[in-house]
Structure formats: C-alpha cells, structure tokens
Amino acid sequence: MQTEQNTKQIAHNSNQVATLYRMVTDEHICPFGLKSKDLLERKGYTVDDHHLTTREQTDVFKEKHDVTTTPQTFINDQRVGGYDDLRNFFDLKQEDEKGSRYTPIIVTFSLAALMVIALLLNGSGVGLSLSLEQVIMSFIGITMVLLAMQKLQDLVAFSNQFITYDLLAMRHVRYAYVYPFAEAYAGLGMLANFPAYLVAPISLCIGTVGAISVVKAVYIDKRELKCACVGGNSDLPLGFISLTENLAMAGAGVYMLGLT
Hints:
It contains eleven helices and four strands; from the N terminus they run αβαβαββαααααααα. By secondary structure, the protein is of the alpha+beta class.
C-alpha cells in the first residue's frame, strides 16, 4: 500500500491528467466519487473518469489494486487513494472534522438575527414600523423556535441530556418531553403577538427554571455538563450561553406581563 510520504511526492501539477475509478451503477452513485471528481477539476486536473458499473467489476478492481474501497485516484501512475487521501494530497482539512462546539448556537443566533433583519426589510414595509422592543422580542421568538426545532429532531436524545441538570426535569422526567413544545409555542406566540396571558407565563416559567438550573449545576455545584439547548447530541458546554438564553426567555415573559 502506498505510503503518505510517497503520495506527497507526486507533483501538484494543474496541467496533469488524473485517473479516477468510481462506482456508478443503476442503484448507486458513490458520493465520494463525485466529490473526488469535483475536487480534481477544481484543482485544474483533467479527469479520466472510469465508471465501475457493477458490483462484480468493483470487486475485481479492488482485488487488482489491493484496496478495500472506491473511489480511487491515480496521478502519474501512482495511487493517491480515496477521497480522504485526495484531500490530504491537496493539504485540505478532512470534511468529517467537527467545527467548534459553539458552531450550532452561533448559527442559530445568526440566522435568528438575519430573519429579523429580513422582516425589517420586507417589501410590504410592515417590518419598518417595528420598535426596538418588538425587534428584540422577534429575535427572542425566532431563536426559541429554531432551538425548539433542533431539540425536536431527536426528542429522546434531548431528554437524556436535559434531565441531567434541569431541576424540574429531574423530578418530573416527562417535563423534558414537554419542554421543546412549550418553547416552540412560546416563541410562535411572541411572533404572532398572542395575548400576553397565553404566552408570558410559559416563557417566564421555562426561562426561570432553566436559569436557576444552570446556576446551580455550573456555578454552585461546579459540574461540567453539555447543554441540550441545541439538541441532545450537542457538544456545547453548559454555562454562560445557556444562562443567557434562559434569562432572555424569562425577561421576555416579564416584559409581556408588564404590557397587560
């Protein structure tokens, strides 16, 4: 098997021809084969694209070249390897490398802010009349809906993580299954401008309980936990961001009650 050192010795020449063998059958088109072809072309290579159209043909190719997977790329008659090897060859980061643990929450807050801006800039002009308080409430409402959506994608995983620190969910496990629906309802209620008595108590309740739970778990008990705010499979640490989110929900509830 060709070593990484040998692979790196192949010259990066944009005028070369790269030979690619990838699986293309009636039932399956290998996604990594398509990605390999695209990457080579973006790097300036002319691709001699060979399709392995049957499982038998693919097995023969693997045996001949002593490989276990396809696609396989060859440059200067030397095997570079599969898609991951090709990315290494071009000194690119692997696609399966995770981004920052804060990426999900940053994306959520950024999209919420952009959605509020979109409302302000909409063609009807309705958004242009929004006050600063309405803009903030719209941001909180949109954020709550987006966060609830992430939780609801895997409610069991969320509940497994949530009950490890939320004080109410620890005592009443079913609350963990209700929470995302309550969060979504409160967020939608804010956006739809429901009467305060229908929305504020829920937002105030889940925000207050959540804030107290975070303070106890992180700042009193000094526990190192993962936050379930962006779903049960999140690597986001429980802490300041989680506390801020809960305080915003509680604050929105207080604000709505103050308007009644």
